[in-house]
Backbone:
C-alpha cells in the first residue's frame, strides 16, 4: 500500500507520415492509463512519480517509405526503430528501455521527417510504459 500505480498502453490506430518535419506521435487508442500520466491528446507521458520505469514501443511499416521512429526523454533521443525502403515493404520493429525519471520528466515517440509509420484497427504500432518502482 502507498506505492503509486502507473501503467499505460496505447496504439496509433492510423498511419502517420511522411511529413517534411519530425512529429510527435499521438497514440489515441488508449487501452490502459492507470495514473493518467499518458496524455492521448499530446502523445506525451509525464512522470508524476520519481522512479524507474519500463517503456516499449512497436512500429509497423507497410510501404516503400522509410520508417524511423525514436523514443525521446526530455527532448533527447534514447531508442530507435528503423527500416529502410526496399522491395519488402511490410516489416515490424520494436524497442524497449528502463529509464530513471524525475517528477515531470517527459517520454514520447517521434517520427522522423520524410518517414512513415503504419497502423489501423489491428493495433500494430503501440506505445507502453509502467512504473517498476519509485526511488
Residues:
Amino acid at each position: 500500500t502507498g506505492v503509486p500505480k502507473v501503467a499505460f498502453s496505447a496504439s496509433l490506430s492510423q498511419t502517420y507520415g511522411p511529413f517534411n518535419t519530425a512529429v510527435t506521435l499521438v497514440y489515441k487508442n488508449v487501452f490502459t492509463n492507470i495514473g493518467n500520466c499518458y496524455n492521448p491528446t499530446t502523445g506525451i507521458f509525464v512522470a508524476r512519480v520519481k522512479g524507474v520505469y519500463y517503456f516499449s514501443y512497436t512500429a509497423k511499416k507497410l510501404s516503400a517509405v522509410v520508417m524511423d521512429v525514436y523514443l525521446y526523454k526530455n527532448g533527447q533521443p534514447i531508442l530507435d526503430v528503423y527500416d529502410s525502403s526496399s522491395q519488402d515493404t511490410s516489416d515490424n520493429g520494436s524497442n524497449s528501455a528502463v529509464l530513471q525519471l524525475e517528477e515531470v520528466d517527459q517520454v514520447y515517440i517521434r517520427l522522423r521527417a520524410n518517414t512513415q509509420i503504419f497502423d489501423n484497427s489491428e493495433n500494430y504500432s503501440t506505445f507502453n510504459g509502467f512504473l517498476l518502482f519509485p526511488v
Notes: The chain has a mean pLDDT of 95. The two ends are 15 Å apart (CA to CA). The longest strand covers residues 51-62. The CA atoms of residues 24 and 110 lie 4 Å apart.
